[in-house]
Amino acid sequence: MAVIPVELAGRSYQVHVGRGLLDDAARLTSTFLRRKQVPVVADANAWAAHGERLARSLADAGHELALYEVPPGEGSKSWQELEHLCDWLLAQGVDRGDHVLALGGGVVGDLTGFACAVLKRGCGFVQLPTTLLAQVDSSVGGKTAINTAAGKNLIGAFHQPSLVLADLTALDTLPTREMRAGYAEVLKYGVLGDAEFFDWLETNGEAVLVREPEPLEHAVAISIAAKARIVAEDERETSGRRALLNLGHTFGHALEAETGFSDRLLHGEGVALGMVLAAHYSARLGLIAQGDAERVERAIAAVGLPSRLSALGLGCDGSRLVGHMLHDKKMDGNMLPFVLLRNIGEAFLARDVDLADVAAFLDGQLAAGSYDPVYRPVVPDRQ
To answer: Pick the catalytic residue: 50, 77, 177, 253?
Structure first.
C-alpha cells in the first residue's frame, strides 16, 4: 500500500492507495467518525458493487450506516440534487464536526464535497473513490462543484477532504470504457510534467488498463503524488501552477458541452481528445515538434481513447466550440488561458491565445478525415 501526503498549511491529509481499503474503512477513518450513525453518500452503482463491504466494516466497528443514494451520471451534479442532499444531511443532524463518507466516482465526490463545504459553513468528508478517474484526479485537491445550464463545474468551492482511500479492488468492477476514461487523467500527468512517466505508460499502459496489480498501483500512486505536489504549491489555482492540471480540459469541456454532457463523450474521453488537440495546437504554434504531437496522439489512440475530432461526428464548426469555451470557469476578464506544451513533460499556461485562430484550427481538425482506426463512441458497457 502507498500513502501519499497532501501537504497544505494546517490542513494536510493522506491518500491511501492499495487493495482492500474499503474492508478496513472503519479503522482507517476512525479518527473522523465521532457519531454512532455514519452518513454515507453513494453512487447507486458503486453502492451495489461495494456497499456491502463498507457497511460490514462500519458494523464490525459498532457503527450504523445512514445511506443516501445518488443516481449515476453527470446529471446528478445539479442544483436539485444538491438541495436534496443538503436537506437529507440536515435531517441526519450532521454538525460541523462530523464527517460524511462519499462512495463513488467524481460525480458523488464533487456533489458531496460541495454539500459539505456549504452545510453549516463547512463539515468534514472522506473520499472513497471507486473509479480510476476519481482516484487519480477529482478525489484529491479539494475542488468541488455542480454543473449548471451555463456550463460544467461553474458553481463550487474549494473544500479539502480529511482522508482519501483509493481501493484498487473497486476498479475490478469498473466498465472497460470508464477505466479507459480514467486512464486519460493518468496519461495527463506524464504529458504535462513527467516525461519519464509518459515513457513508462507507453510501455505499460495496457497492463494498467487490464488492472495488473503492480502496474496499476504504480500508475495510481505516481499520478496522485504528482497532483499532490501541484496542489500543495497552488491550492486555489492562483499562481498558475495548478492550472497546468487543466491540460486537455479547455478543449475537452467544449466537446462535452457540444455532446450535452452525456454518455456520448465521457469526461475522461473529452480530456484525452483535448490533450491531442492541445498537442497539435502547440505544434501549430511552433512550440513543439509535430512528431511529439503525433506521439501524444498515438499514446491515446493505442488504448482505445478518442484521438480524432472528426470521428465524433459533431456537426458543428470551430467557432461553436470556441463559444462553449467562453463559458469556461477559467475565463479571466476577456482572456481564456490555454495549457499548451513546450515538450512532452513540459506544459505551460498560455495567456495570449487568439481564439479566432483556435476556431480555424478546430475547423481543420473537424475536417481532417472521418476515420479513427481505434475509437468508436459507444454506450458504456456494464461489465
So the answer is: 253
